[in-house]
Amino acid sequence: MSKISKFFKGGGSAASKGCRGPSPQEALARLRETEEMLSKKQEYLETRIERELALARQHGTKNKRAALQALKRKKRYEKQLSQIDGTLSTIEFQREALENSHTNTEVLKNMGYAAQAMKKVHENMDLNKIDDLMQDITEQQDVAQEISDAISNRAAFGDEFDEDELMAELEELEQEELNKGMRDVRLPSVPSTSLPSRPVISHELHSYIIHVQHATQRRAEDEDEMKKLAAWAS
């Protein structure tokens, strides 16, 4: 059986007999009083040792008997002083052990209070309800994510029309516009005189060329816009 088991077993027997031991605070107070008393006794013995040593020196060989008696008393005081030193060391060790035991007891007591409080907090908690709650939270988070994805997706407006058909219709409109422009153009009459070395472009032909260039540029810009529109719709 360990020393701790023997200690608690003995304490239980004492408690069953109705004996109540001192509290740790009371025992510590008694030990400190004892230490203080022994410290004062040390000071007293040190003073007596110095006094007996002075007497021995004073008598010397003139009064050998008195000098020897003084030395014998000094030896006795030194022996008592040595015993007190040992006793103080033992008491100091016991006091420190008691303080540590008291600290450990308080720590264990507080840990027990904390365990009871934690148990009381967890009494009204149902693990099944916690699992259901966490499952509900997960499901609601999934629903919220689906709603967010649906809102952030681009609406497919106009996707019911065929893009190739629209491009073909646009090309026909542009071709009709070009044909109409060419019908409205009046070609200049052939001059009877010899042509100059450098051809002269008439105002109408120049306007027609500019018109064709603008139409071609518009067509290229429209095609570029349609490509961008198609890329955005895809």
Automatic annotation (TrEMBL):
Among Gene3D superfamilies, the record links this protein to: 6.10.250.1710, ESAT-6-like
UniProt-annotated stretches for the region Disordered: 1-24
GO terms (BP aspect): late endosome to vacuole transport via multivesicular body sorting pathway; protein transport; vesicle budding from membrane
Task: Give the way it sits in the membrane.
Answer: Peripheral membrane protein
Please provide the record's keywords in A-Z order: Coiled coil, Cytoplasm, Endosome, Membrane, Protein transport, Transport
The entry's localization annotation reads: Cytoplasm, Cytosol; Late endosome membrane
**Major subcellular location class:** cytoplasm
Record-linked InterPro entries = Snf7_fam
Q: Name one GO cellular component term.
A: cytosol
Q: Which family does it belong to?
A: Belongs to the SNF7 family.
**Stored PANTHER family:** CHARGED MULTIVESICULAR BODY PROTEIN, CHARGED MULTIVESICULAR BODY PROTEIN 4C
**Any idea what this protein is called?**
CHM4C protein
What is the name of the gene encoding this protein? Answer: Chmp4c
